[in-house]
Design a protein that fits this description.
Layout (H helix, E strand, L loop, with lengths): L2 H15 L3 H28 L4 H8 L3 H8 L13 E2 L1 H16 L7 H10 L4 H8 L4 H14 L3 H21 L4 E2 L1 H8 L6 H8 L4 H9 L1
Parallel strand pairs: 1-2
Length: 217
Amino acid sequence: MSVSGHRICRLAEQASAATVPAEALGLVKELRHEIDDFERQQVAQALTAGETVSAIARALGVSRQSAHRRFRDLVPARMRSKRPSPTPEARLVVEYARREAREMAITTVGSEHLVLGVLRSGDHPAAARLNGLGITLDAARTAALSLQESGREHAEIDREIKRVLEEALHAARRDGADRVGVEHILTGALCDPAGGATRMLRALGVTPDEAGALVEG
C-alpha cells in the first residue's frame, strides 16, 4: 500500500474515534488532503498504463474537460521528437521531490529529494525495492535533513541534478523505452557515488552492493 493509502486508513480510524468535534474535523481535513494525493497517484498510474483522460473522467464521474483541467500537468505531452519523455508517474515523482525540498525550506531539488519523491509517489516497483531494504519515507526524510545540515552549495546540487536527469534519459534509452519512468529516475539519482541520494542511503545503512541492485532492478 502506498504512503497515502496507509495515512488514509490511519486518519479515517483516528477521525472516527475522536471524541472532540474540533479534533475530528482537523483529522478530516488531513484525510481529504491524503485522498486527493491518493487520487492523483492513481490517475498517474492509469495514464502511465495507457488509459485515456476520457476513461479516467468516467471512473471519477466528471467530464473529460474537468479531468483534463485537474490533471493536465500529468497528461503526457504529444511526442514531438524521438527523445523519451517522462511518464505521468515520473512527473509525479518530480512534483513530490519539489514538494519535499520546499517543506525542508530548500530552494534547489537534489537527488535525495527525487528518492523521497519515489518513496512518496505510490506503489511503483521502484518504491517497493526501496521499502524492501527497510527504507521508509520518514527515515529517508531524516537522513535528507542531515545532508542539508552538512551544507552543500546550490551550484553543486544543480550540477548533480543535471547528471541525474541525463543518466535517467540514458537509462531509458538503454532499456529501449520511449519514456523515462520512475525506475529510470531512481537509476539517475543513484548514479553518483558521492551524490546526495547515495549518501542518504548510506546513512540509512544501504551498502554499495544493495544500492547497485536497486539500479539494476
